[in-house]
């Protein structure tokens, strides 16, 4: 076993911990199907959101970790539950009223409100795949509609008819008495209306593999359970999918955790082996509410990519998956800068520390070098004070600060400069609030301007930070952070900011002195 594999078998990074659990399933020998199957599920009832992406990203991290510790081939299936009936019309699509006549139809039979695909389900599936492809995930996309209608689920559905009573026993225990009276694991698709029917099943014929039921108009129908004529209720469908595909690992949100025993038992009744599972905490919007596809709250995939790179999003997904996290605009700058800090650290780390570094799990074995010689937070402040409307303006300052930098040699910095201008215009500028300094602050700022103007030594970050620090000490700021807080609020219109010496080095001494003078003249308030 290689040194890398040895280190991976001991690593406390959560993807390796999960990978070792999967490997333990096959300690007596490799799987008969010839590979380990990782699955992630997707409900295309609304536009894909970052939580959906996070599930695929995190599963990919575990898959990569597994491939380090084992030679067993792997597959990752992204399964779309696109045969679900549309229960309500999302409020974040064009002309939602036009979809009301299609309620309860499978999502792949609902017209696409965007007019780009053959159905709403196909549209949302395409949105998900486009992003996963852009990020470079290796996966196989599977449509529930295709599997039901092509017959690939037929064997499992016939077994469900044979073992109907046992499956119903599991489900009925989890339901309220009122719901028990009408519940069935099978949902027929009406032959005429095409709607998914939530109606009582009068008879299940295990021998013929059929179900008999009355529709809403009281007409009796008998349909085969095969060929896409029925689908399974979502909880039985979860476990049946595990059995049909022989899934080895699936993760899902905390809201599914109470159903895990149900999913497992359904899988076992249908002849499968329950997979390993991983429950992650849910993402929250800026109000602390759960992100919902139908509400469209929280950040979308496209919105994150408007202001930051895909890699920074992957980094954010790695962090503490069992802790609830907000997905709002203000998490982006921190994620970008932390991602590049970890990239810089990776270059000098040994194998053990590299396996624990988030960027290893974002990139696998191909971790790039960071060329971000200026932080994203600093770029935002530079955009603020310079009034930059394009990244070329920022590059004028960057090249003076780092003469060897260029858009060609520093592509991630070049991209970040463009992101910073957009982020500043959309989220920082509208919320900037400048204030006038008090007497103590004004005296200190006049002193700082004078010392900077008189300075004829090195203009690196540390030297300039020492000057700023000394001014705060000499003017009696206690604690000293109150001095820096005053600089941010008076000069930058924010309560937090960058390391100020670094800001002066980037923005320029003359420019900073002018900025201080404008603030003291009350031109910024």
UniProtKB/TrEMBL annotation:
One of the GO biological process terms: lysyl-tRNA aminoacylation
Protein name per UniProt: Lysine--tRNA ligase
Pfam family of the protein (one): tRNA-synt_1f
Subcellular location: Cytoplasm
Residue ranges of the motif 'HIGH' region: 44-52
Source species of the chain: Roseivivax jejudonensis
Family per record: Belongs to the class-I aminoacyl-tRNA synthetase family.
Record GO terms (molecular function): ATP binding; lysine-tRNA ligase activity; tRNA binding
Motif ('KMSKS' region): 290-294
Keywords: Aminoacyl-tRNA synthetase, ATP-binding, Cytoplasm, Ligase, Nucleotide-binding, Protein biosynthesis
Classification via InterPro entries: aa-tRNA-synth_I_codon-bd_sub2 (IPR020751), aa-tRNA-synth_I_CS (IPR001412), aa_tRNA-synth_I_cd-bd_sf (IPR008925), Lys-tRNA-ligase (IPR002904), Rossmann-like_a/b/a_fold (IPR014729)
